[in-house]
Amino acid sequence: MSGKIFIALFSGINVGGNRIVKMAELRAFFEDLGFSDVATYVQSGNVVFRADNGDAAALTKRIEAAFETKWGFHSRIMVRDFKWFERLVRENPYPEAAADHTKLHAYALEREPTADEVARLAEKCTGPERFEVKGDVLYLSAPDGLGKSVFANLIPRTLKVPGTARNWRSVLALLEMAGKSGSD
């Protein structure tokens, strides 16, 4: 098997009945772009695939442009490789929260936030949530769940670094799927 395993995380599709993209169509779209070993996970848009060439940044641009052409709207996509996902799981600062997947989330960020951006976000984090930023990942521990978290809603506006969140169950499932595809 040639190529390298990547995971694409879509944001803003299949939310609240808007911007509907069927996963079978998304799989076919990736295959039409020449990717292999394509698999999707849940409706929010997670695709594990193998690419023969290109790095995450180049693949992101290519997939975003082709997606917008096909579906007629922009979806921000974070493409990451297997090692990135491995590191994300290994460096989880809240292992005690990982048991309940609804209370631990990881945000894939477009870039590493600056110290000032993180400090601004920390000012808004008045409890019960905790967060930590490691490189281009934000870990959020939300004891009452993401749905009830006021702080979680403030993250995009306050941090101003585009990103997309996944609960811990999705993170682990995607890592497992990528591993099964052969993580070279």
Model description:
The structure is a single chain. The protein is of the alpha+beta class. The protein folds into 2 domains: 4-85 and 172-180, Alpha-Beta Plaits (2-Layer Sandwich); 91-167, Alpha-Beta Plaits. 37% of the residues lie in helices and 24% in strands. The protein has 6 helices and 8 strands; from the N terminus they run E-H-E-E-H-E-H-E-H-E-E-H-E-H. The chain has helices at 23-32, 56-71, 82-90, 115-124, 150-159, 168-180, and strands spanning 4-10, 36-40, 46-51, 77-81, 104-109, 130-134, 137-141, 163-167. Strand 2 and strand 3 form a beta hairpin. Helix 3 (82-90) packs across helix 6 (168-180) and helix 4 (115-124) packs antiparallel against helix 5. The model has no long low-confidence stretch (mean pLDDT 92).
Strand order of the largest sheet: 2-3-1-4
Extract low-pLDDT stretches: none
Total beta strands: 8
* Principal-axis shape: globular
CATH topology of the largest domain: Alpha-Beta Plaits
Can you lay out the helices and strands and say which pair or pack?
Blueprint: E1 4-10, H1 23-32, E2 36-40, E3 46-51, H2 56-71, E4 77-81, H3 82-90, E5 104-109, H4 115-124, E6 130-134, E7 137-141, H5 150-159, E8 163-167, H6 168-180
Helix pairs in contact: 3-6, 4-5
Protein name: DUF1697 domain-containing protein
Pfam families: DUF1697
InterPro entries: DUF1697
